[in-house]
Amino acid sequence: MSSVAWWAMTVLPVVMSQIKSDEVVVFYPTCAHLDEGGKTWTVPIHGVIYEPEQDSVRRSLATASMRRAVGVEGDTPEAATFERRMRLFLVDNERGKDISIRLGSQEYEVGKSAANGHFTAALQLPAAEADRLLGSRLRPSNWLSFEALTPKDDARRFIGRVQLIGPSGWSVISDIDDTIKETQVGDREAMLANTLLRDFRPVPGMAELYGQWARQGAAFHYVSGSPWQLYLPLADFLEKEGFPAGSFHLKHFRLTDSTAFSLLSSQEATKLGAIEPILAAFPGRRFVLVGDSGEQDPEIYGRIARKHGRQIAAILIRNVTDETADGQRFRRALEGIERQRWELFRRPQQLEGLLGRLSQSQEAAG
User: Fold this and answer.
1) Model pTM greater than 0.85?
2) Is there a domain that residue 152 lies in?
């Protein structure tokens, strides 16, 4: 990753993005926070620039190897899905590319892309300018759009979005695999099939539950061990199934034969590295952490709750391993956390009314 750059608003000329006609830019949705004085928004920008891999010897060999690994054969719907998703892993990432954007009437230089094609920056946007762009004062959910500055002869538009989240209120940090999307991470063959071969399937009832929380003003952050290469199909999945929009925090991953079966592994480093900055950016908000028992979510969330105390209002774990709340694993993972602050659930319906109850408890506590 390139180092984070800070840019103030400027009227100086901005360097045009170095995007060739055969290159693509994808911006990932992020979340902006206000400074302590309420006068300036810190607006993170995160994206990737790459050249889609065309038919080549490299692509053919990699695809054939993965076909054997996941057992896909012939001309079937699963094979077609496999081809589409594999292309996302076989792009040529572009390093050292200058990226600039336009947000409202202002232009900003984001910086250069790193070796993996990713670029990051944090812009400083005056609150008054944000109000002007939004057309009103801050509401529970506010999104601003921006776009890459492309060369004059390039009519394509690469659009990004950032959510402006206020300093107080409710936020939901949610896992994806086996929490809101059926993946079966515990079964290696099923996991690969559900990740690379099949249409993504929602966990029944989770979109409705999250929609209820969104209508109550909750903001969402999707933090997952899924690789960034799957962002586009994951974003399509969330929109199609009616999940609330939110920021994405996924894993950097390079596909090789030796790592093909670890697409969703290394949860702890990925999730801790993503969740800690979110909590730091919004110290006045209360957080609900939602995950599943299939991998390390109970352990990761327990560690976070012990460290951040009052910020974590609830830990909710979908039970996909048929464990019990009084078993040794959960006693150890959630040691020191009051029993009323965490719940092991099988059906989302068990969590209906949760935010209302949490709000009442918060008000009663003063």
Assistant:
1) yes
2) yes
Q: Which of 15-19, 76-80, 190-194, 216-220 has the highest mean pLDDT?
A: 216-220
Averaged over 285-311, what is the pLDDT? 96
How far apart (Å, rounded) are the C-alpha atoms in residues 4 and 44? 9
Instruction: Based on the fold, state whether residues 188 and 114 are members of the same structural domain.
Output: no
Q: Which residues are paired to 46 by β-bridges?
A: 120
Are 67 and 148 in a shared domain? no
- CA atoms of 9 and 23, how far apart (whole Å): 28
156 & 175 share domain: no
Same domain, 266 and 355: yes
Closest CA to 277 of 3, 24, 30: 30
Using alpha carbons, list the distances in angstroms from residue 160 to 143, 146, 153, 174: 10, 5, 21, 21
User: With 50 as the cut, is the pLDDT of residue 4 above it?
Assistant: no
Beta strand 118-126 with 219-227 is unpaired
* pLDDT computed for residue 264 by the predictor: 60
Domain range for 119 = 6-52+93-164
- Out of 1-5, 141-145, 177-181, give the one with best mean pLDDT: 177-181
CATH number at residue 42: 2.60.40
First to last CA, the chain: 42
Query: DSSP secondary-structure letter at 184?
Result: -
The answer to whether residue 1 is domain-embedded is: no
> CA 278, 281, 284: angle at the middle one, nearest 5?
105
pLDDT in tens, 79-136: 889 989 988 998 999 999 999 999 998 999 999 999 999 999 999 999 999 999 988 6
Domain of residue 174, CATH code: 3.40.50.1000
Distance CA 290, CA 215 (A): 18
DSSP code at position 45: E
Q: Which of 164, 179, 207 lies at the terminal end of a domain, its last residue?
A: 164
Between 2-6, 122-126, 268-272, the lowest mean confidence (pLDDT) is in: 2-6
Give the closest residue to 248 by CA, choosing from 44, 19, 87.
44
329 and 350 Cβ atoms separated by less than 8 Å: no
Structurally, how many domains does the chain consist of? Answer: 3
- Asked if residue 251 is part of any domain, the answer here is yes
